[in-house]
Amino acid sequence: MTATQERPGGEVDQDAAEIGKDRRRKEDQRLITGRTRWTDNITLPGMLHLAMVRSPFAHATITSIDVDAARSAPNVVGVFTGRDFGDELGVCINAWPITPEQKTPAHSPMPADRVAFAGEVVAVVVARSAAEARDAAELVDVEYEEQPAVVGIKKALEDSVLAHPDLGTNKSALWVFDSGEAGTGGDVDAAIEEARTNGILIEREYRQQRLIPAFMEPRSVVVDPTGEQITMWSATQIPHILRFALAATTGVPESKIRVVAPDVGGGFGGKLQTTPEEWIAWAVARRLAKPVKYTETRSESLMAAHHGRDQVQTLTLAADRDGRVTGLKVHLDADLGAYIAIVGGGVPVLGAFMFNAIYKFPSYRFECQTVLTNTTFTDAYRGAGRPEATYAVERLMDELAAEVGVDPLEIRERNWITHEEFPFTTVAGLEYDSGNYEAATARAKEVFGYDALRAEQRERRERGDRVQLGIGVSTFTEMCGLAPSRVLGSLDYGAGGWEHASVRMLATGTVEIVTGASAHGQGHETAFSQIVADRLGVPFEDVEVLHGDTQVAHKGLDTYGSRSLVVGGEALVRAVDKVVEKARHLAAHVLEANADDLDYAGGRFTVRGTDQGVAIQELATAAFAAHDYPEDMEPSLDADATFDPVNFNYPHGTHLCAMEVDTETGAVKMRKYTCCDDIGTIINPLIVAGQVHGGLVQGIAQALWEEAVHDESGTLVSGSFVDYLLPTAADTISFDVVHTDQPSICTTNSLGTKGVGEAGTIASTPAVVNAVVDAVRHLGVSDIQMPCTPERVWRAIHAGDGDASTASDAMPHFEAGALNQDPTAGEGAGL
Amino acid sequence: MTKIELTVDGAAVSDDVEPRMLLVQYLRETLGKTGTVIGCDTSNCGACTVHLDGTSVKSCNVLAVQANGRTVTTIEGLADTAQGGLHPVQESFRECHGLQCGFCTPGMIMQAVDLLAENPDPSEEEVRLGMEGNLCRCTGYHNIVKSVLHAAGQSAGGARA
């Protein structure tokens, strides 16, 4: 494990270096003792409780709603439907229309006339207790006229059944990037034609099944309309964006809104949303002038909180006979579900820049067709667009290696950007600032024992063992640190990508820092304290990190896209530097010296060449007293900074996975997983390892277990944790997480850091599937659809007998009628 | 309404409850023991795990009336935390970074305490099987397993950071 990293700048006292220390987290004391503030823990005087009435139909018109019985139930205070609210209910927003022509269905938080997915809210019951609200919700009598529902991408593309008849089509938007047209590369069609006659052409269709983020804390919202401001507490990743959206859509001035994200129990993109339930709670609280609370059940969460992934990828990879790629053509069809959620349409577009990955592809074309269906809407889930792209390209590189007949790592080396070639402008138009794929690969191979495992694999094949060994490779990169605001503007995203920080020296010498990032498990309080401790020279324990409350952190863009450290951390550094410069001016005055003659280290200004000095804490007290300070300064040691990144950053890594496959049963078992991630400077290796571990398991789960399934009527079949297979401790193994000795430092922030929150998830899915396929490739298998259930693996092996067909006829692990599994067909597998 | 009398985190409590009230609702809503949380409605996730007469139970799977006359320990009563004390398992979770968002953590810790009471020297596999009824979405279980092994006072074996 890397201990202390070299940092650019180098003026900080190395003896005091906090950066690189595996500090135990400041957050943990309250979390391990139950002294927590989850939204559902909040109880206010006179608080009322909400229960939602949800449509059981995926597509229906609402004929009538009879609320009389519910209204007269014990302790019910009110029952409201979409007709009871006008404009005050607001609308759910799509902040990223990906093309000017995008077809966007109107999205009311509680529609009055028509529902478009099963789980949509049609009425809300308000009672004095949560139990009474739920009891009364059962008494709301809704009459529906069921309409035909469209489920699954291929069905949606036919346009024979429409998710929203008023739009006239299910096709929402077509977004295209072409390197020939953009001037970033050649003509991919020419490369494909050349490969067809003189090279290698790999054509595949891969499916990104629908996933559910499944954060452990169900979503919860409390709204308090008493007092001058309306306060909303929400289990959200995005309190600042939420506040903006409430102001923009409900007519309440932004200055009258306070949003608080207290302790938030995970998100993974799933709480990067402005939700119908938040808007309904807002409207009810305002109408009744009383505090209200709504906490969803897990069943509601799985059904109505947004889902992720759900794409069909049609891919053509062209290469010369040596396996040097000459072009990649990608057509995505992406299922947005019933509505276009806050960044739903943009998620696949984020992948557009990543299909070329770490490689020097000379030509590239990307098309994404988004479609609407009568299913739960989709949006960001850990990685958001980048895992899908990485899966496709890393699977293709393995197929290319098999075609050329070389080791999968060899084919990657023939195509990757070498470390001397950075900075490198890719065929997708991004400038990768730094990276060292050779070093990460060498280290991963060594720790994994690559050559020995390959030898064992050969022996097992030769012996014809029942249990075969496969080795999977994934050499990923990603773009993270969302995001340069000008780039977001060019993509028609509705906001910027900067981050804000404030640093305040308190009178007694401790420090408050405020960040616009909003942690929900990432450990900001610890990592940011380490940065400030080093940069400002104060004790780690003296730094208090405040966040997640718009009244405290007045400016921010919250936490997602591996941005908190690389964007928010840099804002913090800049604010600290401003405080140091203010303090320098005051120190010069106090010490009666020239500011240029002062050195600053370990929290102390000293007059060069003397033993005279003053500590920053003393200066803070002096500024507070304000009895004696320079006339040209204000008596305060605090500063704000807003940082807008000039580029994304590009962490990368080599992930190696060994899987054992029982060729008689199709059961798969992970034997070993090693990853070497290069994320530049590491602030806290303990936190980094934790982020990688958790990310790995989410990616592994996509490869092996998880799948959200709607049946042909649009009912979510995987609607509980009994059916949606979240991995347990017994399903997983311990991992080898290592780093290179000489990380490639990020050149676009002064800490040299790159994002790590999504890395494990992006990298691991193809590593696992590549390993499973590798274990049985000699049996004629070249693909297995995710999740690689025993049945799919077994069928792939048997389909492979005699012909080298893929496993595309393997069953989904739910019934065959499940139309959002559309590339598959055949008889049912049963639950 | 049914009257129940029980001991929760060392204190005698007595309340009239609806017969249908779950123990977890009683703890959270009646007693304000919000350290114990609810993560699902199918008894899969284990976030609500507490000890009933010293044995771990999912408190969403026990009626409050079933706890009548018995002793309940929650995450808030595991150690004298008001005085800064921590149970060794709590200490281990912090030491080994066995939590991130912390939502599953009370249940994880209560389950781990029970597991170690039954098997003070578990193997990694025994820890994994023993913690199978508690879901975590953040840690990938790597550091949870490490935390439990650390608490058991044995080396973490394959669980390297």
Quick synopsis:
Chain A has 831 residues and is α+β, with helices and mostly antiparallel strands. Chain A has 21 helices and 28 strands. Among the domains of chain A are: 14-36 and 498-643, Aldehyde Oxidoreductase, domain 4; 48-382, Aldehyde oxidase/xanthine dehydrogenase, molybdopterin binding domain (Aldehyde Oxidoreductase, domain 4).
List keywords for this structure.
heterodimer, A: 831 residues, Aldehyde Oxidoreductase, domain 4, five-stranded mixed beta sheet, 28 strands, globular, disordered C terminus, B: 161 residues, alpha+beta, Ubiquitin-like (UB roll), 2 domains, 5 helices
What does this structure look like?
The complex is a heterodimer of chains A (831) and B (161). By secondary structure, chain A is α+β, with helices and mostly antiparallel strands. Among the domains of chain A are: 14-36 and 498-643, Aldehyde Oxidoreductase, domain 4, CATH 3.30.365; 48-382, Aldehyde Oxidoreductase, domain 4. Chain A is built from 21 helices and 28 strands. Chain A has a seven-stranded mixed sheet with strand order 3-5-1-12-9-10-11, with helices on both faces. In chain A, strands 7-15-14-13-8 form a five-stranded mixed sheet. In chain A, a hairpin with a 2-residue loop joins strand 22 and strand 23. The longest helix of chain A has 28 residues, at 564-591. The two termini of chain A are 44 Å apart. Residues 1-14, 802-819 and 821-831 of chain A have low confidence and may be disordered. By secondary structure, chain B is an alpha+beta fold. Chain B has two domains: 2-77, Ubiquitin-like (UB roll); 81-151, [2Fe-2S]-binding domain (DNA polymerase, domain 1). Chain B is built from five helices and five strands, in the order E-E-H-E-E-E-H-H-H-H. Chain B has a five-stranded mixed sheet, sandwiched between helices. In chain B, helix 2 packs across helix 5 (142-151). The longest helix of chain B has 14 residues, at 105-118. The radius of gyration of chain B is 16 Å and the shape is globular. Classes of the chains: A alpha+beta (831), B alpha+beta (161). The interface between A and B is large, with 64 and 65 residues.
